[in-house]
Amino acid sequence: MSIRAVIVGLIGVAFICSYTYFNDWIMRQTMFIGNFMPISVYGFLVIFLALIYPLFRKIKQSLALRPAEIAVILGMVLAACAIPGSNLLRLFTPALIMPNRYENTEPGWQKQKIMDYVPDGMLVDVSSDEETILSGFTRGLSEADDHIALSDVPWHAWIKPMVFWIPLLLSLWFALLGLANVVHRQWADHEHLPYPIVTFTRSLFPSTDGQRSPIFANRLFWIGLGAVFTIHGYNYLNLWFPDYLFGQVPLGVDWSPLAKLSDTFERGGGEGFLSGYSTIFFTVVAVAYFLPKDVSLSLGIGPFLWVFLSGTLAIYGIGQAGWQGQWPYGITRQSMMNMGSYFALLAVLLYTGRHYYLTVFKRAAGLKTADEIESSAIWGARVFVMGIAFFTAYAATAANLDWPLALMFALGCVAIYLVMSRLLAETGLIFIVTFGTPATLLWAIFGARALGPEMLLIMFMFCIVMFYDPREALMPFVINGLKLADDYRVKLGRTAAVMALALVAGLAVGIPVVLYFQYDKGVDVSAWHINQSKIPFNEVISVMQRLDAQGQLADAGSATGLSRFLAMDPGGQALLTFLIGAGLVLLFSMFRLRYTNWPLHPVLFLVWGTYAGDCFAQSFLVGWLIKTLVTKYGGAGIYQHLKPLMFGLIAGEMLGGVGPMIVSLIYFIVTGGDLPKQFMVMPT
């Protein structure tokens, strides 16, 4: 690992953490990150390795980065992708200040005195200068086309909330970094997971002697790239010049009329599903080509089966009544079944790797074992334990969250992020969202009366900052980064260390830049991500009203510490649904291990009914069909021969997204701030 690579990596981290907000919320282009295969990162990687890298090598051979250096840089940038978008900064700053506005505009907030439950330091204190701190955030402090100075941002008001939140964030993130080092060897070497995104990335990398990848000399690669890039490029041009072109190239077929063929499918929302999620994503088609057929088939049919299940339940009068709350915190049929599936798959992962994991943690505790374990896994286990311990202690002291709840919340986050990482490594599912949160599970297990309004509000606020829209969660990025580094013989411990450095640097750059943009021009108070900051409070108010109607509000949450377990009142309907989801995953996992030709993978139950699963279902089915036909009629030779074509599809889609980003920036600069046309490549 070279100093040069770390410096270039930090420059990339600073760029992605400062530019993402500008791209997403000022120019409003396709999301700069958006999923676990960011168009911004991989699009520029294709440009760099295809065009710039050979130029550097021709000018001076020492200028060309070694493959190991590129792997380190990419790992740092990928880790930092967890900061500026949906995983944190999209919701972070609004969540810390907007409740002060809603306290005066939302009915019931003052009546229920909901802000009294907020721990000291969790939110921004606007009392010293509400006009500048709060109104300046929503309306902006600039005048006309002028921009504010850095000193105009009320930095002092944000210091206390940063001291409250940043230790929590970093302790959880460092714990996830440590755990990623623990599971890496089991997944990469013992279970031989395919890591589809890493496979594509490696196909672009130069050889160890510095020669450009042979993929760039493959005709099929350029055919795939050119075809997809041309389609996206034409559709982008059509936005600007609709009068001179022949309309958009359709990227899918509206199958919604077919929903009427099945009354059950139609009752389950089939018409909306078929019409709203018909886009074919070339990247997903290509990823499906590299997967085992049972995985791609399961990812493809899962959402269809969910629609049939919903329709069947609707026919028998089993709807959504009787549940509590709404997305994302609500205890609903969808959230509990989804969480049950996640935790069942976690149990399967722990069981299959039990010997290795037990050995690692024994060595981490200083015990001798017969098997040798690399030091990165041992120290990863220690960092994981220390991170969770610090998170628990800090949450208990700074946020007044009971330490058992803090510990279970942290472990719940870790569990779900670990399973998401497994999905990415095993299936290449680059877009993953969940229904339900760790707070949802604790609410279902303990009951609202045992938890009380204060504990619920604190956990809901923890979720909005650390677990709300996990489409860009840290650990899946880290898993891919570690695998790539390991493939090029970079020490995993050092890779994790520079990733930790990237996270600290990303926060140091990203938070001030986002705050500056927001205080310069203000925020759209009607935007979805701004309004989400009221959801934790409204959800708790609903719980308080329900408890009050039942005569239980006065003593709700009176039990503390371990005594809270004695006051538990689990929701029977919720736990039953959780167990159904878990049972399906365990059953399919057993069938898959027992029967060689079992056609379905338990990942089916983790994606069905989710937004991400719906978006990619048809694309996975197309990829599955292509692979099935190729292997059946062409054999293994043709299958291998067509791999460069699939790599080209992915590269073309990455370039098809990054190209409009570059054009939009140039247009914005040349026109003095006019908004460019909005062009989306991946799901928003």
Summarize the entry for a quick read.
The chain is mainly alpha-helical.
How would you characterize this protein structure?
This protein has helices spanning 3-26, 39-59, 67-80, 92-105, 109-112, 130-139, 155-190, 196-204, 219-240, 263-267, 270-276, 282-290, 293-315, 333-352, 354-364, 375-398, 403-427, 438-446, 448-466, 474-487, 492-521, 528-531, 535-549, 572-594, 604-607, 611-633, 635-641, 643-670. The longest helix has 36 residues, at 155-190. α19 packs antiparallel against α23 (535-549). Helices cover 66% and strands 0% of the residues. It is globular and about 70 Å long.
What attributes characterize this protein structure?
684 residues, mainly alpha
Tell me the layout of helices and strands.
Elements: H1 3-26, H2 39-59, H3 67-80, H4 92-105, H5 109-112, H6 130-139, H7 155-190, H8 196-204, H9 219-240, H10 263-267, H11 270-276, H12 282-290, H13 293-315, H14 333-352, H15 354-364, H16 375-398, H17 403-427, H18 438-446, H19 448-466, H20 474-487, H21 492-521, H22 528-531, H23 535-549, H24 572-594, H25 604-607, H26 611-633, H27 635-641, H28 643-670
